[in-house]
Amino acid sequence: MKASVSLEVSAMRRNVGFSLVELMVALLVGLLITLGAFQLFVTSRQNFDQASAIMERQETLRYLVDSISYDVRSADFIGVLSSNNSRLSLSFDKENTYCAGEDKYRLDYYRKTDSTEIIVEVVCDGSVVTTQPVVIGVGSVNFNYSQPATASSGAYSTIPTGPVGMIVTITLVDEKGRLQDEEFTFRVANRTSIGRALEYEVGS
Asked: Can you tell me the distance from the alpha carbon of 140 to that of 118, in angstroms, rounded to the nearest whole number?
């Protein structure tokens, strides 16, 4: 009889399950593991977003530099139209697909008002034919003439052809706040102006 009672008590103890303390410890361990996994996910997501933002910025800068550089190099005339040096004007005299039956046309680069878009505007015979966005993510753009060197440096001081290129300063912004604003400056020469400068130097 005593043996059977003892077995029943043992069986009851086995069927009791977890105590409250054991359950709380298990919940705490599970919570810590969940928080660790969530923190790892958040960190990985932030790193991914930042890497994506850097790639987007590099692509924006590369494409903008390539576009402006190509057009400045091949233009027949380079100029800055706005008083705050924010609009670049490039004139061409060659066969094109913009102006029907006209070789002369103009390309204007500028930042769209209240936007981060850089716009290129095609002008034929004084009229705007098309306006297209080039890139986004630009907070400001500034165009300055790259003047010939002074006489004191022993370079061309009396060249009558004007600036030989442009100095372009761009501030790139991230509208999603993933990166801080960055300023970049690059120089590009105009082949026509350099050619005239060299012709003048040789002939003088």
From this structure: 9
pTM for this predicted structure = 0.73
d(CA 62, CA 60): 6
Give the span between the Cα atoms of 139 and 30, in whole angstroms: 47
- Of the chain, the percentage scoring pLDDT greater than 70 comes to 79
Show the DSSP H helices in the chain as ranges: 2-15, 20-74, 191-203
153: helix, coil or strand?
helix
Which of these, 154, 158, 108, lies nearest to 134 by C-alpha position?
A: 108
Q: How many CB atoms lie within 10 A of CB 60?
A: 19
Structure tokens at 93: 């005299």
DSSP class of residue 161 equals T
